[in-house]
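>> received
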Amino acid sequence: MAFEKTNWDWTTKLSEARIAPGEKVVLFYNRWQIPFAFVICCLMAVTQFFRYKTTEFKTFIRQIRRSFLVSLVISFPLILLIYFNSDYANLNSDKRGIYTVCAFLLFATIFTITANADYWLKIFKGKVGKAGASIAHIGFGLLLLGAVISTSKKDTISKNSSRFDISSFTDQGTNEENIYLKKGDTLPMGDYLVTYTKRERVIKDGTPYVYFNVDFLDTDKNGKPKKSFTLRPFVQLNPFMGNAAEPDTRHFLHKDIYTFVKFVDPASLVDTTDYSGEKGQLFDQPKNHTLAVGDTIGLDNCIAVLDSIVKIDSTHQYYKPEEYGIAASFNVFDGSMQEKKLTAYFFINKVSGITRQVDAIDENLGVKFTFWKVRPENNKIDVYTAVKLSKKSDFIVMEASIFPGINILWIGCLVMVIGTFLAVRERKRKNRITETDSQ
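>> returned
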């Protein structure tokens, strides 16, 4: 079957266009969604002034002129204060572009509010019962106003101030937007000091939840830290669908502080209540490391450096004539930088090729090294490391952000619901009158 070529070249160009989101996903969608929201707001501001086939342009302009000018007067100083302030010069080009379109959207939301309020006062003479649509539009304008302010001015305060590099052990967060909190440590974060105090496991309706209590501290009049409030972000455990992290939020009149656990050691989510007496002897999931002499391993409570790899001779206590044996020696440094020497052994039978290992274990540190593979092609070895559950550091990687003006959004939601209810009620009232008249 032959297909004739059409003149629809635009379809080919569209199919070949690369318009999928890149790495800056939020920026990509903002560039599309904010102009769309701007158009919607403008339409919601003016459509109630239209009359089917009878709208005169001069009358229409005269009706919306007052609300338009009031919107300009209100939004202009707000835009200068929120977006084009002294910090604007320090922003990158992407952020400046978003702030510019957000400024237009902020004006459009205020125009929606003032125009519908003007319509309510002029046409309905301030009567609430008949102004459901106008009130719902005002609520929607408030909703978008709160959304644009809170999201565009979102301030991520969780800058990592610990000595641990978050990107070195997880790809779930960066040092610029997350903080590493070890249990008991107190670190600065924004205007607060924060302390991760404890982890709690709770069963609700048969589903386990793990809560992480984080205290936010400010200072009293004497400059001493005092607890201001506690947030409890949590992880819902689900072995079938995967674990789901859930946020916790502190609400203020003018802002919300939002916290979210980005990463937690999976071993800390394990329920050890059934073998709590054995917990001191249990190790976590081993991790493999491919090492050359001089390489370093960072564990929860120590640092290990591979010092040497040597073949053992017949004088060694683990030597057997039918085996080849290799010893891997580690210099291990604890939190006080006290050095210990640990040696793990690897043996292979000369005839059968069967291997065995002798682990290096330090009971005080609670660490174990298992030397299990030799890579002669590049002079490296593979070593499993594990830490006792009782010795593991309890920590979380948390994101914390401030959303200013978020309560404007919630007020808008409430007003929009009220307006919708009034509009439905008024429509039902008119329908009843129509049915009565027709009878």
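>> The first helix runs from residue 9 to 16.
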